[in-house]
Amino acid sequence: MGAEVVIEGLTKSFGNQAIWRDVSLSLPPGEVSVMLGPSGTGKSVFLKSMIGLLKPDRGRCVINGVDIVTCSEAKLYEVRKLFGVLFQDGALFGSMNLFDNVAFPLREHTRKSEAEIKRIVLDKLDLTGLQGAERKLPGEISGGMRKRAGLARALVLDPEIILCDEPDSGLDPVRTAYLSQLLIDLNAQIDATILIVTHNINLARTVPDNLGMLFRKELVMFGPREVLLTSDEPVVAQFLNGRRLGPIGMSEEKDAAQMAQEEAHAAAGHSDGSSDEDLRGVVPQLEPTPGLPERQAVRRRKDRVMRILHTLPDAARQGIVDSLTQDDRIRYGLTAPTPRPRVDDTRETGRV
Ligand SMILES: Nc1ncnc2c1ncn2[C@@H]1O[C@H](COP(=O)(O)OP(=O)(O)OP(=O)(O)O)[C@@H](O)[C@H]1O
Ligand SMILES: [Mg+2]
Question: What range does the domain containing 149 cover?
């Protein structure tokens, strides 16, 4: 099972430019989480802080009992081996072919034989759909292939924690759909803790167990997917619907006067060019490709979420209860063992 990451009060600035402050969240072991946020809110800085490439001003980031903000360089080096990271730009070495790029962490961090390295590298290239491309240089392949090569390289050390910075950027919608499935399949196969930064609404709605959002230098929310997918919080709703109407502006946040003006414009029936369809609501989560093992995180997450159910907003609670199977309902004591047709009092009262 993947490692848990516990972040408390993490704060980061560059000189006098505050990036975000007091970020606290836990990535539950083996679950998939997505971090959303407008451009420039510090998502990449957040990922780099989690692996100790950037040093936060204060706060803790605890992995397997080690706080990587304050630990020694030697400890940090150890903890970093738990991570597989796909950087936003892919970060491939331009002069090395894909095989050598993907083999790099193995040659750097292990004493494996070249035969063993070859087996692992070809396996990861196969997993990410790059079989046959191992002799190509990064400059000779498409952006999507480079992303996948970056992902293959992130996987070679059997990471317990995988960080992916915009794995879908530059991919067409079909490739993004395959990538979404790949991330879920990967989670089913290795049970790693995964954090994905993305702007892709569809991926955010269908892949993760948990969703979070950074805005205005703060973590606005982080929690089970049902919480954000049903949220009335203006910035979350705006983002998930991809609308102009709302607190997020082109370059930075809008002020109250501008928001009021735009709302009046919309109320007068003017479209902002986005679909009127409200994309909020709990949509089914992707499941592993048939033939693969079940995701072990699913049961753990259900138990975890049911324990905190009473603390969640009504709409999220309803979404969670609606997604339970009959067996789950029995397990959590929500219904009598024999199903009573059309009696669903949780739906009526919102209580469970
Ligand atoms: N090493 C650095 N030194 C100084 N400022 C930095 C550094 N890295 C990032 N920043 C600043 O931190 C802010 C957040 O950058 P970051 O790349 O984390 O945003 P982001 O949320 O990942 O955006 P995007 O969605 O466009 O990738 C930006 O204003 C950026 O200029
Ligand atoms: Mg970024």
Answer: 92-154
